[in-house]
Amino acid sequence: MPVIHVVLFDLGGTLLHYEQPPHLTMDALNAKAMRAFLVAASQKGARVANPELAVRAVGRLGAAMEARAARTQYANTAEVIIEEGLEAVGVRLPAAAWDAGIAAYYSTISALVKPVADDTPAVLAALVGQGRSLGLVSNTFWSPAIHDADLARCGLLEYLPVRVYSCAAGMVKPHASIYRQALDLLDVAPPEAVFVGDKLAVDVAGPQKLGMKAILIASPFRTESDPEITPDARIQTLAELPSLLMTWDHALEPRLP
To answer: Could you tell me if 149 and 133 are in contact, meaning their C-beta atoms sit under 8 angstroms apart?
Structure first.
């Protein structure tokens, strides 16, 4: 039985790439998805006089809500952002147009998702084979259903029975409650778990404050640096995890007198 019973993962940038700078920033991804939303909605009878104005309005509101979430740690949803952004420019949609738009919005995002590495399913299988339980804690305003579908398509969902998404949890990382929700569902205490992610503030400092160990995985898109935050380990790829955790198990296991 491993000493580290549970591995919790971040999603975007750790298991799957949604944002892929410089060409596919989060703003660019959402704008592309919103354009698809408006095309699909118009095919169902929606009238949008200035589609680009609507795209910009939703983008501005999304940025404002993201900034507020960083301050308050309260989560948002894409549906609320889109609805309120469109209303700000006088666009109200009938139900059929809304449903078609949301479907197109999410399908556009999913079509651009890439796994961080081709061997990720094998890595997760190896961790499960070591006797560990796995879970996921993600900051996202996109629907949990879309993320679950992306994980399933990439062969990862079966290894992640516990998935906590901020849009459903109500709070964003690094609020302690979102990590605790995952730990409670997996029935472990913080010292029995490790968190793996690509952002120091939410994937390292937050879990460590709660009592977990935290591992920073390198991002191909940016360098994370903060002299006040020190991960328990840094890895370049997820493939390094199984051997690293076995080393930690041996170091942490109780020694008989």
So the answer is: no
In whole angstroms, what is the distance from residue 144 CA to residue 101 CA?
17
Cβ-defined contacts of 228-232 (< 8 Å, 24+)? 229/200, 229/201, 229/204, 229/205, 230/204, 231/200, 231/204, 232/194, 232/208
Specify the amino acid at residue 97.
Answer: A
Domain-embedded: residue 68: yes
Closest by Cα among 70, 55, 34, 217 to 142: 34
Concatenating the DSSP letter of every residue in 81-144 gives: HHHHHHHHTT----HHHHHHHHHHHHHHHHHH-EES-TTHHHHHHHHHHTT-EEEEEE--SS-H
Distance (Å, whole) CA 84 – CA 64: 12
Q: How far is residue 87's CA from residue 71's CA, in Å, rounded to a whole number? A: 25
CATH classification at residue 42: 1.10.150
pLDDT of residue 256: 46
Bridge partners, 217 (sequence order): 235
Of 27, 112, 117, give the one whose Cα is nearest residue 63.
27
Number of domains in the chain: 2
244 vs 119: CA distance, rounded Å: 17
Q: What is the pLDDT of residues 75-91, one digit of tens each?
A: 999 999 999 999 999 99
Residues 122 and 31 in one domain: no
Q: What is the mean pLDDT of residues 147-154?
A: 98
Residue 57: its pLDDT value, please?
A: 97
pLDDT at 34 > cutoff 90:
yes
Q: Is the CB of residue 112 less than 8 Å from the CB of residue 24? A: yes
pTM of the predicted protein model: 0.94
